[in-house]
Specification:
alpha/beta, Rossmann fold, Dihydrodipicolinate Reductase, domain 2, 3 domains, NADP
Length: about 400
């Protein structure tokens, strides 16, 4: 029986998870693929460190050694950062190998280039592991595109931030205390900036946008806010109102324009993301036919992410091709453009705040702040005029009990 030769670039959490999964699931893989899967090479940084890798595997810190292997069918890339990952995958495709990546930052920047290069060389690019770990978000969207027009995607795409917000609410911790707990459990890096400031969710959102709508929004136009400024007092105020903070990544089509955001958001009990706690990820997808469906599961970790990589490996070897978003973008242009789309917002003043007038926006005073309905442009103006007020979008049905109205 011929074997499928695989090289793994990087041996951190993801790379090791892929290697261990291949080793422990040989029978299952052979039953599906009709061939044995053989890891023939692993690229590492430190050759002196014992990693428990079999002697039959080439362990090297020189990518050129891997490129000189006589047979290489699939290359799995699990390196952090844009380079040298992008260059390695370009070289791998040009050599004629299928490539699979778990690198969301690199793929957000260079995904389209890699897919075009792969098409020219008649190989595939797998990237399920770049978004939500073991949750099959990308495959689900691609399957829906057979007939559905995707209208909107909302998701909790970063488990670290979700864990911190859950700890602050459930255990009354401050942000620094919850962050330290996340670091102690291995959920957060020593430098947590990518997670807590929304960069990780931002990269994943761009990848989903390309799949669902055939293009990304203008990067600079996407509001990106993290959770580091959320206080335990705000968590408590939200809880008293029946609301929960979540770091929500959202993307949708507004006429011919793709718009998105990554920011702390308040969700009501009616919203599908309300009960997503801890390090779980969840994505809510709205299609014109299917309506809203929600996926939930582990968004990171050795085995969940390895599972996504192995699924891509199977698709690559069996040459199963899922739909692309090309046509979807054209079909979706029927979506109405609504620059004045009204959303629900909660203003949490800090100290003495004098709110300035906003045209055509009414505000209801409630406990701990103000509830209002306004569009993005009005909220942007309100933020500029009221620097000391925190303003959060509210998702889901929300009934305002007090009816005393004031006007901005």
């Amino acid at each position: 029986m011929n074997s499928i030769k695989v090289a793994i670039l990087g041996f951190g959490t993801v790379g090791e998870g892929v290697y261990r999964t291949v080793e422990t699931h040989q029978e299952e893989l052979a039953a599906v693929l009709g061939k044995k899967v053989e890891v023939v090479a692993i690229l590492i940084k430190n050759k002196q460190k014992d990693r428990g890798i079999g002697n039959e595997v080439l362990v090297t810190d020189d990518f050129e050694e891997i490129m000189h292997l006589p047979q290489l069918d699939v290359i799995v890339e699990a390196i952090v950062g844009r380079e040298p990952a992008f260059t390695y995958l370009q070289r791998s495709i040009q050599k004629g190998g299928h490539v699979i990546t778990a690198n969301k930052e690199m793929f957000a920047y260079h995904g389209e280039e890699l897919k075009k290069l792969a098409e020219a060389h008649r190989v595939s690019v797998g990237f399920e592991a770049t978004v939500a770990g073991g949750v099959p978000v990308i495959q689900t969207i691609q399957q829906l595109l057979n007939i559905n027009r995707i209208k909107k995607i909302e998701g909790i795409l970063n488990g670290t931030s979700n864990y911190i917000l859950s700890e602050m609410r459930v255990n009354g911790q401050t942000f620094p205390e919850a962050l330290k707990a996340a670091q102690d459990k291995g959920y957060a890096e020593a430098d947590p900036t990518n997670d807590v400031e929304g960069f990780d969710a931002f990269y994943k959102l761009l990848i989903l946008s390309e799949i669902a709508f055939g293009e990304k929004p203008v990067w600079e136009s996407v509001p990106r806010e993290g959770i580091s400024s959320i206080t335990e007092e705000q968590i408590t105020q939200a809880e008293n109102l029946g609301l929960r903070f979540k770091l929500i990544a959202s993307i949708q089509l507004d006429g011919e324009k793709v718009i998105g955001s990554v920011r702390p958001t308040l969700v009501t009990e009616s919203h599908p993301l309300f009960n997503i706690e801890g390090v779980e990820n969840s994505v809510s997808i709205e299609g014109d036919i299917v309506g809203r469906i929600t996926l939930q599961g582990p968004g990171a970790g050795m085995l969940p992410t390895a599972s996504a990589v192995i699924e891509d490996l199977i698709h690559a070897v069996l040459e199963t091709k899922l739909p692309e978003a090309e046509g979807t973008r054209r079909r979706s242009l029927h979506a109405s453009r609504d620059q004045n789309r009204v959303q629900n917002w909660l203003i949490m003043p800090q100290g003495e705040v004098s709110l300035h007038r906003i045209p055509s926006s009414s505000v209801t005073e409630i406990e701990s702040g103000y509830f209002l309905q306004a569009n993005e442009q009005e909220i942007s103006a309100l933020r500029r005029q009221n620097r000391s007020a925190s303003i959060f979008e509210v998702l889901g049905d929300y009934a305002v009990e007090k009816t005393v109205k004031v006007y901005l």
